[in-house]
Design goal:
It is built from 29 helices and 17 strands. It has 631 residues and is of the alpha+beta class. It has 3 domains: 220 residues, Aminohydrolase, N-terminal nucleophile (Ntn) domain (Glutamine Phosphoribosylpyrophosphate, subunit 1, domain 1, 4-Layer Sandwich); 208 residues, 3-Layer(aba) Sandwich (Rossmann fold), CATH 3.40.50.620; 81 residues, no CATH class. The chain has a 6-stranded antiparallel beta sheet with strand order 2-3-1-9-8-10. A hairpin with a 4-residue loop joins strand 6 and strand 7. The two termini are 39 Å apart.
């Protein structure tokens, strides 16, 4: 795992080391740079040594130095690929480096190589004789890749903050990204928060021709292509198959030359990983859990039962809600882009820092198995009514609540009065147009339309599969995986997500949706398959989540920064949001007349990002608290 960076064009050699240095926390173990001054190419990386700590240094070349690579991630089927390559006559200099496997795969298979990989990755290969840079990002978007291109230069990094440190990369904000953020609480798709910076999409590769300066994108993997239900297997056999496939995925993702720990929430997903790691023979296993002082939200007792059952080296910490306020500026800086989602996992990775380098997590289990039943209201309407509703309403159900199911049910039931913005957690497309100043942007594309089009394009397979595909194309990579990568790497931890092993994902979508998840028990198949690995108390425990006391924070601890960053004077100077936003939404909440906690929180998180990245141009992880913003 590491942070990678590369430049082509004028002054590349002068800028590569500063780009790499800005990502030191992603790879504190080593640094490497390769410069081809004649071609104007510079590659660099910071390394967190996981596989072949001695022999896996980067940038790495093939034998005759005609190809060079920088690589962020892990290839979990690299042992099998290495054996196949050796059978064809390829020789390896390293003991077991997956980086060298990538080089030889490129030499053998060229641009088709990403299709052979199982893992999490973002890499770039410099093909010297052809004058080409070739790179790819993993199928599900676990590892990040940002790039910027102008007439003379092509630049790429693992993190946005490094890219915008370059003087020619503009920090002009992309208005559509702000528009989408207000509904989604994250920035979606290929366009980043900045006009000049884009993301390589999951499941895509690229080639950049140094002579013609042409950049070409190619999609090599689509989740839609693996949704192929197999109706020939009995429900009981699916349970056994699921156990075997997840065990194999956990085994693959346990590949490491350093100890592998596990983030243990006390829920079904992470607890299953712990049990399977033990079943796979992992003997020295550490587990880390966080709990909350509010006992209604605390899952530490369940996590403790799992740790006791499997005799792990268990570590626990109790988090007070106000702890997050202290670390909020550092979180905002590390996140790179505006983000209004969950934050507590910061503390899991912080508690691991210095003790381990690799942590398994249960991310992806929800999306594969029902995702809290987002599909159930569509199915309950009945086929004809559902089809009629979708035809008449189009994207309205997306606009209304971004899949907050209780509001979606209201809308589909015909309660049109709920369309007022106060009824929904996030801002509707119509509301957003009244909040954004015309000089900042107009002509916005509805956020709801993009979600609706993607959903309806997969509805033929039924609502359960359509919802799963939508979430795995949008919220999973752009919110949950992005947050997990930034928070883990901020503490020099490699977070692994075996539920998102793409072979396991393919298997899960071969299970008929009515067997994969039930309307009354979304994870019944997974629960049944893992039952003997888990304490009985966990099997019947309700799902819990940590809910930030946002409403109180906004009125009390965060009141000064809310008044400053969302006050009419600041908004007028900033030129993005209408100054009347304060009187319309913010003040009624602050004085207790109305409740708009999540809407104001999303605005405040954007403003904190703006203050840090645009106004202050903060160049390093901040050590100050929110109070410093208004002092």
């Amino acid at each position: 795992m590491c942070g990678i960076a590369g430049l082509t064009g004028p002054e590349s050699a002068n800028w590569i080391r500063p780009l790499v240095a800005m990502q030191t926390y992603r790879g504190p173990d080593d640094e490497g740079v390769f410069i081809d001054e004649h071609a104007g190419v510079a590659l660099g990386m910071r390394r967190l040594s996981i596989l072949d700590p001695v022999g896996g240094a980067q940038p790495m070349s093939n034998e005759d130095q005609t190809c060079w690579i920088i690589f962020n991630g892990e290839i979990f089927n690299s042992p099998a690929l290495r054996a196949e390559l050796e059978q064809t006559g390829r020789r390896f200099r390293t003991r077991n480096s997956d980086t060298e496997v990538l080089l030889h795969l490129y030499e053998t298979h060229g641009f088709n190589m990403p299709q052979l990989l199982n893992g999490m990755f973002a890499f770039v290969i410099y093909d010297v004789p052809r004058g080409i840079l070739f790179g790819a990002r993993d199928p599900l978007g676990i590892k990040p890749f940002y790039y910027s291109k102008d007439g003379l230069r092509f630049v790429f990094t693992s993190e946005l903050k490094a890219l915008i440190a370059l003087p020619w990369v503009s920090r002009e904000i992309a208005p559509q990204s702000v528009f989408d953020y207000l509904s989604l609480l994250h920035i979606p798709g290929e366009q980043s928060i900045f006009r000049s910076v884009r993301r390589l999409l999951p499941g895509h590769s690229f080639s950049y021709n140094l002579r013609t300066r042409q950049l070409k994108m190619q999609r090599y993997w689509r989740i839609e292509d693996v949704v192929r239900p197999d109706h020939s297997i009995s429900p009981k056999d699916w349970q056994e198959c699921l156990r075997g496939e997840l065990r194999a995925a956990v085994r693959r993702w346990s590949l490491s030359d350093v100890p592998v720990a596990c983030s243990l929430s006390g829920g079904l997903d992470s607890s299953s990983i712990v049990g399977l790691m033990r079943e796979n023979g992992v003997s020295d296993l550490s587990t880390y859990s966080i709990g909350f002082s509010d006992q209604n939200l605390n899952e530490l007792p369940l996590a403790h039962l799992v740790a006791k059952k499997w005799q792990t080296d268990h570590h626990e910490m109790v988090l007070e809600a106000n702890d997050l306020l202290r670390d909020l500026p550092a979180m905002v800086w590390h996140l790179d882009e505006p983000y209004g989602g969950g934050l507590p996992s910061w503390y899991i990775f912080r508690s691991m820092a210095g003790a381990v380098k690799v942590a398994m997590t249960g991310t992806g289990g929800d999306e594969l198995f029902g995702d809290y039943g987002k599909f159930r209201y569509l199915e309950s309407l009945g086929t004809r009514l559902r089809q009629a509703a979708l035809l008449v309403l189009g994207s309205a159900h997306f606009a209304s609540s971004h899949w907050q199911t209780k509001h979606f049910l209201r809308f589909m039931a015909g309660s049109l009065s709920s369309c007022h913005h106060d009824a929904f957690y996030y801002f509707t497309d119509d509301t957003k147009r009244t909040l954004i100043q015309a000089q900042f942007g107009n002509g916005f594309q509805n956020t709801a339309d993009s979600l609706s089009n993607l959903f309806n394009g997969n509805l033929a397979g039924g609502p359960r599969n359509a919802v799963a595909v939508l979430d795995m194309r949008t919220q999973l990579p752009e919110e949950f995986l992005a947050m997990t990568d930034r928070f883990s790497m901020a503490h020099s931890i490699e977070a692994r997500v075996p539920f998102l092993d793409h072979e396991f994902v393919k298997f899960c979508f071969s299970i008929p949706p009515h067997l994969r998840t039930r309307i009354d028990d979304y994870k019944y198949l997974l629960r049944s398959a893992m039952a003997d690995l888990l304490p009985p108390e966990l099997l019947s425990a309700p799902k819990r989540g940590f809910v930030l006391p946002v409403s109180r924070w906004l009125r009390e601890e965060l009141r000064p920064v809310v008044d400053h960053l969302l006050g009419a004077d600041y908004l007028r100077r900033q030129g993005i949001f209408q100054p009347h936003l304060y009187q319309w939404i913010v003040k009624p909440h602050l004085v207790g007349q109305e409740e708009h906690p999540v809407q104001i929180w999303s605005l405040l998180m954007f403003q904190l990002w703006y203050w840090m990245y645009i106004e202050q141009k903060t160049s390093g992880a901040p050590a100050f608290s929110c109070d410093a913003i208004v002092s």
